[in-house]
Amino acid sequence: MTTPGHQPRHHDSSFQQHTQRPQQSGGTFAVARKARNLLRRVPVWTWRVLMHSVKASENTRFNVDPIAGVEYVRDIDFVGDGIRAHRLDVITPRLPNGTTAHGTAAAGAADAGAPPALPVYVYFHGGGWTSGDKASLTKYCASQAAGGMVAVNVNYRKAPRFQMAHVLADANAALAWVRQNIAGYGGDPSRIVLGGDSAGGQIAALLTAASFRPELARHHGLTPSLPASDVKGLVQHCSVVDFSVFFDKGFVLSLNFIRMLLPGLHSGARNRGIGGRLGGPGNGASHLEALRKGAGFLPRSNGWIRASRRSL
Fold this sequence. Notes:
By secondary structure, the chain is of the alpha/beta class. The chain is 36% helix and 17% strand. The protein has helices spanning 15-18, 26-38, 44-62, 104-107, 138-146, 164-181, 199-212, 214-219, 256-261, 284-295, 304-311; strands spanning 70-77, 87-93, 118-124, 150-154, 187-197, 231-237, 271-273, 276-279. The strands form 2 sheets. A 6-stranded mixed sheet has the order 1-2-4-3-5-6, sandwiched between helices. A two-stranded antiparallel sheet has the order 7-8. Strand 7 (271-273) and strand 8 form a beta hairpin. The radius of gyration is 20 Å and the shape is globular.
């Protein structure tokens, strides 16, 4: 679920303090609470309808009074295939002399007076892995840029047409683009913080964990684009990182979200996770165990995030 941006307060030198939590959408959450009273577990199709119904209002309301004092470079194709799911925005602050950070690194290679490179905040939007767009996070990302960093606002392919393997591949490709190109926008590729809201927070957390835990990266078939030493922080806004809650009685989202993200984890089929086999055909208890095992790599229920945070 996407969240609105706001103008940040004045901060001290801590990068983490720049990455404020975007305000929650009261209207959207109110609808979700009412829907929960009607449905014990929200199926995937209901979530998609809900997100589609609030998309237009989110984009309008969250971007009222755009933030000035920053430069927007929109819809950069970080894969090269021309689809919107592979576009990102780079938002940079204006420097005290009225110029922008964009291009200062390249120009400053021979200029000892060039401003220092800024930390980089890469953000993934939410939407329950099935919906959402970077557009509704423009103001939030701009507020972070205004606080003194380079903000990168990223799109990615979504379920149910695509699965977690595609989502992670897209997010990892965006990080590869950032590492190779962000210096030209005044950013420091060795100081990167990943962030996101809702599903985007989970994506950011999983990529962070994969950078620090090679076995997790191998399971998902990833070669992390960022070395662990360049990942300086993780910011999560109202995101699911412990997928074991999907198995708790009364949790609002159904197990079909896990089946959707990890295709093959359904009764009567060969159970396969992304990057690894989870067992043979089964149903009942064996089927549930296959789902639990797959969910353990999404990632916190196996301790991936806790271990990675100790390394940050």
